[in-house]
Amino acid sequence: PALPTAPLAPVLPPTSVGVFAGIQPSGELHIGNYLGAVRRWVELQRQHECFFCIVDYHAITQEYDASALPQRTFDMAVSLLAAGIDPDRAVLFVQSHVPEHTELAWAFTSVTPVGELERMTQFKEKAQRQESVLAGLLNYPVLQAADVLLYKADTVPVGEDQVQHIELTREIARKWNARYGEGFFPEPQALVGDAKRIMGLDGQAKMSKSIGNTIGILEEPEAIWQRLRPAMTDPARVTRNDPGTPEICNIYHLHRHFSPPATIEEVAQKCRTAGWGCLDCKRVLADNVARVFEPIRQRAAELKAHPERVREILAAGAERAQVVARETMHGVRE
Ligand code: AQP
Which long-range contacts (CB under 8 A, 24 or more apart) does 175-178 make? Predict the structure, then answer.
């Protein structure tokens, strides 16, 4: 298919409601993000009005390389477009290009109890990794609530890790409405799919850009193999001849997302009987992951060859998002 171009005219009515989803440009788009969220976004855009946002203001709440952020933001746009986000169907934009996000977040801090923010699981986990905990990390869910409610979205497709934040978004909407006017903001629902928590290659934590336990969706076949080789498997398989339990092995779970049904059966059987070693099993997985993402890799290469197109798409997306954002902020200021 032809490369996407920036849409010439807004295709959405200015007061649209529907879907909002965001992703941080804190690293490369990985298979956890893809299976848990982005794959679903591509489906949703076919039937719903969708706003997809690269949330760069969220990405600066953790340790990050400032000089690399513009490139990472661009790369995330390329990955999303290559994965199937269609600028003719959905609005794709960068959070900091629409300043109403941070403006609404500030207004929301006045209805958000600090105690609620402190009990967020993601805050507690990420705060452990910071020597001096940043206020931005604590306020992350307030900005996320602003992201969603600025577009009065009622559906937020996310992985399991974000469900708690969407519950807080609902609470913020309720508190706002109770104080300033019933029905102003909807109470959005999280939409969680079947791949809600993909584990990282370390087998210990969820797959996360900032932990580096990932497989990027644009990685070359050889790089995918090099990532998978040392990945954690069933610890009972100490030697090649020790049988294993596929259900407790992350590699088996990944096969369930990338391999055909007959292969998944074979993997389970060869694991239980030690017919395959873990490396054999990983080799098959590496080939299947590479095959699934082959068309996306090709499309990304085409997009990277035309960076101006990608920038146009993001600029047009910000313009379209801002039409809705301004209207909401007008109501908020009133
Ligand atoms: N391991 C995962 N399994 C399923 N879904 C996942 N998501 C993230 N990791 C997994 C979902 O991907 C969307 C975008 O995530 P994000 O970039 O907003 O932030 P995150 O959840 O914090 O993702 P990462 O990769 O762990 O980033 P870092 O390390 O920078 O914090 C969300 O819908 C998320 O649920």
Answer: 175/111, 175/112, 176/108, 176/111, 176/149
